[in-house]
């Protein structure tokens, strides 16, 4: 049987999530904006999902804006807050996902300034590198909560405090963190937080932007004024219901699953350390996601290794799934100071709830066979 080890790209839809979605795909079909009973029924389902999601991240339901996924939420966070500003200054970390970097370049290309915040060799933004960026007085700072390639977790709470001291807004992309580790929007004290449902066994095409009321967000989609005017378009009820159910299940299973998956990651790491050809990108003493491990094999191209593993039934990644096909060295590793020749061979393994010790052992055995 094939072994799926690419859970940072997407996760399988949980059967309980599918069960929650099916009534809104087969029978319950009212438009949430309609005032009749069919409309009220779907509106109630959306608000229930909003409450479920808010509970997972320790926020208020009215702070949640449903979107079509993490990419739209990231675009709303950047473009929506900077629209109308004259020559805005925007600061983002050098290791952000493409959905941040691309929109950041777009909104500052014609006017404004984009500042990229450097990271240390462990892949973290430090108070020193942040201070350099804050000298430009950015209107908004965006630093991801957990990196999708290395799994490194940023000290967002402290960074947000420093940003707020300079009167800037702070956004964090939490797509890889929410549902995998405890995330408290209230304790992080960020202004904006992005999340994506298909990263924690919810449906693809579901996500949210969480915001504080003082943040002035201009819509990037115009029309009927749904989602309190922030996101026009008839709501994808089934996806929203699925996102809410996935959030509920994640809250129930988080502690147990995180420990089990971290144990598998440690088993994988120990096995890789026994292979002299392997270089691990594992920073010492730095918090990281329980499921993610990135490495490279000496003198082995990452794409070639990925395909060799795929032929043997192991699905892994050479970086972000959204950047697949570019065949370039990881911008994350390059920002960390990794040699481009080594960064070009990077492989990411991201584990999930259905992986087993036997699968990890089989992966290690096959990798050893391939590289030898």
Structure overview:
The protein folds into two domains: 3-10 and 254-371, Aspartate Aminotransferase, domain 1 (Alpha-Beta Complex), CATH 3.90.1150; 15-249, Type I PLP-dependent aspartate aminotransferase-like (Major domain) (Aspartate Aminotransferase, domain 2, 3-Layer(aba) Sandwich). The chain starts with a strand and ends with a helix. The protein is globular and about 65 Å long. It has 13 helices and twelve strands. The protein has 372 residues and is α/β, with parallel strands linked by helices. The strands form three sheets. Strands 2-8-7-6-5-3-4 form a seven-stranded mixed sheet, sandwiched between helices. The chain has a three-stranded antiparallel sheet with strand order 9-10-12. A two-stranded parallel ribbon has the order 1-11. α9 (237-273) packs across α13.
Give short descriptive properties of this protein.
single chain; about 375 residues; alpha/beta; Aspartate Aminotransferase, domain 1; Aspartate Aminotransferase, domain 2; 2 domains; seven-stranded mixed β-sheet; three-stranded antiparallel β-sheet; 13 helices; about 15% strand
Through-space gap between termini? 24 Å
CATH topology of the largest domain: Aspartate Aminotransferase, domain 2
Helices and strands: which structural class? alpha/beta
CATH architectural category of the largest domain: 3-Layer(aba) Sandwich
Low-confidence stretches: none
Total tally of structural domains: 2
Mean pLDDT figure: 95
The main pleated sheet reads as: 7 strands, mixed
User: What is the helix tally?
Assistant: 13
* Beta-strand segment tally: 12
The side-by-side strand order for the widest beta sheet comes to 2-8-7-6-5-3-4
The fraction of residues assigned to DSSP E strands is: 5-15%
Helix content: 40-55%
The CATH homologous superfamily of the largest domain is called: Type I PLP-dependent aspartate aminotransferase-like (Major domain)
